[in-house]
Specification:
Shape: globular
Number of domains: 1
Strand content: 25-35%
Low-confidence stretches: 1-5
Number of helices: 6
Order of helices and strands: EEHEHEHEHEHEHEE
Number of strands: 9
Largest sheet: 7 strands, mixed
Distance between the termini: 33 Å
CATH architecture: 3-Layer(aba) Sandwich
CATH topology: Rossmann fold
Radius of gyration: 15 Å
Strand order of the largest sheet: 5-4-3-6-7-9-8
Length: 196
């Protein structure tokens, strides 16, 4: 499993690339690399998730942050938001830290490791583009950990493709959260809002 983007230490040889991503009139620079999810571009699912979000305040976590696009855009758009980026892939977590610094985002902290164990308590928001290829057991474990880490009334936002289990994920999430709603759909991607 070391060749996968969700591995702790990816085997792919490092070859960094710098990109610029723009959403909602904000341009951010990112360094990406082989052995990370969606190297070289902001993936469509994460972009749709970001475009579907309201303004956020309080404490948030980006669960499975990769090289940091979701967390960095949220930090840029919401100055009062304290956001923790959690990523098991050491290469991606290091890039997330560098990308937060590259874009001068001081309201970001990075944690490297298993998000099921590292989520801070009493969060207002958790955002994730979950690692579907890691398997349902791991992904549903992340959902359970997110529910436990959110304060009452807190919200989990996630994006998942219909053909990769969006409907079954929504059904499962309804067993955990008091409200689960699909708030956006595009090109097979669903953005779900789950309120504790």
């Amino acid at each position: 499993m070391n060749g996968q983007y969700f591995s702790q230490n990816p085997e792919a040889k490092s070859r960094e690339t710098e990109i610029v991503a723009e959403l909602r009139g904000t341009s951010l620079r990112f360094i990406t690399d082989h052995g990370t999810f969606s190297k070289g571009r902001l993936d469509e699912g994460s972009a749709l998730l970001l475009q579907s979000l309201p303004a956020l305040t309080g404490r948030a976590a980006d669960l499975g942050a990769g090289w940091g696009p979701i967390g960095c855009f949220l930090a840029a758009w919401n100055e009062g938001l304290e956001i923790t980026l959690i990523e098991p892939n050491e290469r991606a977590a290091a890039l997330a830290g560098r990308n937060a610094a590259l874009n001068q985002l001081g309201n970001v902290r990075i944690l490297c490791g298993d998000g099921r164990k590292l989520l801070p308590p009493c969060l207002d928001f958790i955002l994730t583009n979950p690692p579907i290829r890691a398997g349902k057991a791991l992904v549903y474990g992340l959902f359970a950990a997110a529910h436990a880490a959110l304060k009452a009334g807190g919200t989990l936002y996630l994006v998942i493709r219909r053909q990769q289990g969006a409907e079954s994920a929504q059904t499962h999430l309804q067993t955990l959260f008091s409200s689960v709603e699909c708030i956006a759909r595009k090109k097979g991607f669903w953005v779900l809002r789950c309120i504790k």
